[in-house]
């Protein structure tokens, strides 16, 4: 009788080992499925980011002077009142300022042309701080001189970009219109 009991115990242990092995294999299989699903989620998140960037909001503007403008003060924004394009309505042609709505990387460019016998320096300003300058010098020459500059800036929501007079103050700083003095910018890439 003891042998039969021992045989039952041995069979139960062997049978139990088979169940343990089956469960171990099932756990391994489920683990590999979970890892595969995690990788798929990461891939889908990356794809979603790429697609979101592809359909990110568009912001861009181009404006110029409709008339010659002069008598400007130092650091006074030039008001480019003739809007050619204003996608996203972030440029204000009443005060000459672009206000960032969507954080990201932007390209800005501006050009200036001083009127006859005049000299003008202007600067692209970010939140009132000069970033890059341009000069138009029409003194002592009959050749029209035009200055321009470009800058790529990382902007946060609420940042303000404008073109301001750098020199001279109020006297002999007339800017020529007719498409020669302009300001433009556009969103290159939305911030993550």
Automatic annotation (TrEMBL):
The lineage of its organism: Eukaryota, Metazoa, Spiralia, Lophotrochozoa, Mollusca. Residues 1-16 form the signal peptide. It comes from Sinanodonta woodiana (Chinese pond mussel). It is found in: Secreted. The keyword Signal applies. Pfam families: C1q. Keywords: Secreted, Signal. PANTHER family: C1Q DOMAIN-CONTAINING PROTEIN, CEREBELLIN-RELATED. GO terms for cellular component: extracellular region. Its main location: secreted. InterPro entries: C1q_dom, Cerebellin_Synaptic_Org, Tumour_necrosis_fac-like_dom. It comes from the Eukaryota. Gene3D superfamilies: 2.60.120.40. This is C1q domain-containing protein. Residues 54-192 form the C1q domain.
